[in-house]
């Protein structure tokens, strides 16, 4: 068997094409959705992600700006900036690129952002709303994963989802979103004993561990859907996921590639959240 590939790049393009119409409708009403990205320091990966966010925004007609500040920026100065953005009626979405320098308390910054502008879906108010199944800004990578599964009509209700990884950004929320869709969810992580016995039970296996090739054919139940969240840069500069793609695709029914898998979907969901924020703009 050779698995069907879920092409995140193509799906992201389709979604962005639809978003263009939504943005045009908002612009006709005098609302131009606007995303402000705050980037502190010069982490090369962060710079590259932020550039991707700006480019994708422009493709859909969303306006955006990047506020770049030096590594030495104080926490107080960053909180002051967030306060100004919270009060700016023209700013719909605020994204502070993580990680932050060590002298700035990440959680404090996240909690300072107006939950109505938290297009990352990281604010505890939005996390709480997600936990209770209420309409809210969903964290972008988990939202993208659920959208990919639904795009292929992959059954979720009653299925066994195994998530490897328990980060606040991906692992924990993706399990929660799929639980909301009536999946049975198992979380595995670096302290899990006997990982394979769990992964082999998965109808849907979500891998977010950050180790190239951590999951091979012998971890996978025949016919499972495999979602690879890993983005690992190899010595030759190429990108690879956490799953051994060539092996896994012979066992799985569906699989996401890296690149062109989950990555493009994450940015697209950020745009979707920005449009949602603009729709809720207070007059
Ligand atoms: N750093 C890596 N991924 C993300 C993300 O989704 N949002 C923010 N704000 N920072 C990140």
From TrEMBL:
PROSITE patterns: THF_DHG_CYH_1, THF_DHG_CYH_2
Tetrahydrofolate dehydrogenase/cyclohydrolase NAD(P)-binding domain segment(s): 139-280
Pathway recorded for this protein: One-carbon metabolism; tetrahydrofolate interconversion
GO biological process, one term: purine nucleotide biosynthetic process
Key words, A-Z: Amino-acid biosynthesis, Histidine biosynthesis, Hydrolase, Methionine biosynthesis, Multifunctional enzyme, NADP, One-carbon metabolism, Oxidoreductase, Purine biosynthesis
Pfam family membership, one: THF_DHG_CYH
Tetrahydrofolate dehydrogenase/cyclohydrolase catalytic domain segment(s): 6-120
Protein name: Bifunctional protein FolD
């Amino acid at each position: 068997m050779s698995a069907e590939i879920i092409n995140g790049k193509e799906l992201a393009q389709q979604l962005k094409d639809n978003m263009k119409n939504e943005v045009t409708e908002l612009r006709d009403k005098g609302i131009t959705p606007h995303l402000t990205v705050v980037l502190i320091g010069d982490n090369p990966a962060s710079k590259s992600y932020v550039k991707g966010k700006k480019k994708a925004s422009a493709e859909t007609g969303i306006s955006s700006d990047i506020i770049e500040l030096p590594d030495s920026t104080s926490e107080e100065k960053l909180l002051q900036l967030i306060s100004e953005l919270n009060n700016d009626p023209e700013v719909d979405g605020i994204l502070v690129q993580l990680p932050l320098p060590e002298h700035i308390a990440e959680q404090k910054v996240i909690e300072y952002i107006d939950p109505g502008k938290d297009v990352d879906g990281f604010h505890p108010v939005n996390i709480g709303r997600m936990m209770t199944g209420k309409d809210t800004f969903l964290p972008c990578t988990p939202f993208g994963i659920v959208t990919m599964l639904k795009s292929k009509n992959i059954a979720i209700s009653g299925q066994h989802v195994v998530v490897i990884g328990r980060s606040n950004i991906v692992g924990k929320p993706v399990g929660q979103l799929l639980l909301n869709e009536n999946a049975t969810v198992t979380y595995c992580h670096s302290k899990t004993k006997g990982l394979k016995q769990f992964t082999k039970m998965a109808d849907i296996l979500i891998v977010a561990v950050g180790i190239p090739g951590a999951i091979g054919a012998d971890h996978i139940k025949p016919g499972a859907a495999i979602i690879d969240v890993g983005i690992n840069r190899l010595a030759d500069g190429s990108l690879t996921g956490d799953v051994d793609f060539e092996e896994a695709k012979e066992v799985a029914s569906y699989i996401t590639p890296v690149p062109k898998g989950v990555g493009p979907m994450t940015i697209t969901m950020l745009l979707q959240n920005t449009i949602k924020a603009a729709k809720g703009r207070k007059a």
